[in-house]
Amino acid sequence: MVAKGDVFGPNQPLILHLLDIPPMMGVLEGVVMELADCALPLLHGVVPTDDPAVAFKDVSAAFLVGAMPRKQGMERKDLLSANVKIFKVQGEALDKHAKKDVKQVLVVGNPANTNALVCSKYAPSIPKENFTAMTRLDQNRAQAQIAQKVGVPVGNVTNVIIWGNHSSTQFPDASHALVNISGKEVKATEAVKDDNWMRSVFVDTVQKRGAAVIAARKMSSAMSAAKAACDHMRDWFLGTVPDKFVSMGVISDGSYGAPKDVVFSFPVATKAGKWQIVQGLPVDDFAKKMLAATGKELEEEKSEAMSVIEA
Ligand code: LMR
């Protein structure tokens, strides 16, 4: 998708730097062969490597998709401790080797929000605004649920918000969403006509969708996660359309009562590689409660990650 022009546009040639761990170098060679065989006109080079210094050398954008997944019996602290090490190495490598104006670093590997915070901490010469975490998969899932409920194509649903953490405490919020029905845009609440569903089944389904995919596939989401990463980077790079917003995990300034200095998912509008939190949306008591719960989890994750760093 990246090499085909779906992210940086159909006129932007690119070189892909592909980083993996040493035991995967043979498999990566196969990926390189397949990329050649795709005959992609925009792909002007491929650099496969197991060395972060080579991988991050002069990159303009980075998709950080590799992380230690949670295994059975693992505590969140164990997961954080493994990931702090990975994202420390990648943050340091970005700081040292990436272009100084590297604008877009997207963290996909879980726990994505806190991994993004750790990565940014170890790349002090790169502005914090240039690190984001992916909640676009949750946004896409939420749009799909609303579209199915109303019976419209998914592209007709916009402005669904994911607040907070990419975890089961996230708050998928369709109270500001719009649905295009036969050319007329109406509020999702009017199209769905079931407030109870919007606050229970809808929220629950989106919060637990990642786990449901793992239970069905015996593996974590792959195709939908890759598509969401491309959607996230494309909108960040090319900009959102007026009056529409998307959700991204970004460094929090305390907007909407969220804790400051954690990577929190907000509705954002983007232009020329910069995001801005959309301000002034009404937040009711139910939403405030949901935002507080996911904010609390992010603060706990942050303090656990910091205790690993300081240990
Ligand atoms: C997803 O939302 O599909 C993944 O983040 C789930 C996971 O834990 O890998």
Note down, in words, how this protein is organized.
This protein has 311 residues and is of the alpha/beta class. The protein has two domains: 14-133, NAD(P)-binding Rossmann-like Domain (Rossmann fold), CATH 3.40.50.720; 136-302, Lactate dehydrogenase/glycoside hydrolase, family 4, C-terminal (L-2-Hydroxyisocaproate Dehydrogenase, Chain A, domain 2), CATH 3.90.110. Helices cover 42% and strands 19% of the residues. The chain has a three-stranded parallel β-sheet. It has a three-stranded antiparallel β-sheet with strand order 6-9-10. Strand 4 (104-107), helix 4 (112-121) and strand 5 (131-133) form a beta-alpha-beta unit. Helix 3 (76-97) packs across helix 11 (285-310) and helix 4 (112-121) packs across helix 11. The protein is globular. The relative contact order is 0.13. The structure holds (2S)-2-hydroxybutanedioic acid.
